[in-house]
Amino acid sequence: MPITLGQLIREARLRAGDMTQKELAKMVGTSMENITSIENGRNKQPSPEIVTGLSKYLDIEIADLYAAMAGTLNTYPWERVGDLDLKDPELELMFRQVDRLLEGEAKDRVKSFIRFTLDEERRRRRREQEDKQKQSE
């Protein structure tokens, strides 16, 4: 089932340290009522300026926001690394095996590698997004 824009915004806002709708609205430059209507599905097509602000302050790629608006977003951005879906059955099996078979330092090394890879991917995406914004200015 596709993820709606409202679901995406609400989940991202809460993942950002329990940010309130009022706080997000102030950062984006809109009203709390507008954020509420987006999250509740009453405003399914916010303005490009609002979408850009949501992307910036919630650290979501604009393409993911528009995919949610179009009803084609099937996984949350934080559940993917690049083109990799973290809910992929093969990955889930690997994670279960790591949890079951590895202990102590070996398990810590795998976790550290995954954390490092995710952090690198987030930094790369952020740099790409900043470069695109600079080019459009």
Automatic annotation (TrEMBL):
Entries under Pfam families matching the protein: HTH_3
GO molecular function, one term: DNA binding
Gene3D superfamilies linked to this entry: lambda repressor-like DNA-binding domains (1.10.260.40)
Classification via InterPro entries: Cro/C1-type_HTH, Lambda_DNA-bd_dom_sf
Ranges where the HTH cro/C1-type domain occurs: 9-65
Protein name per UniProt: HTH cro/C1-type domain-containing protein
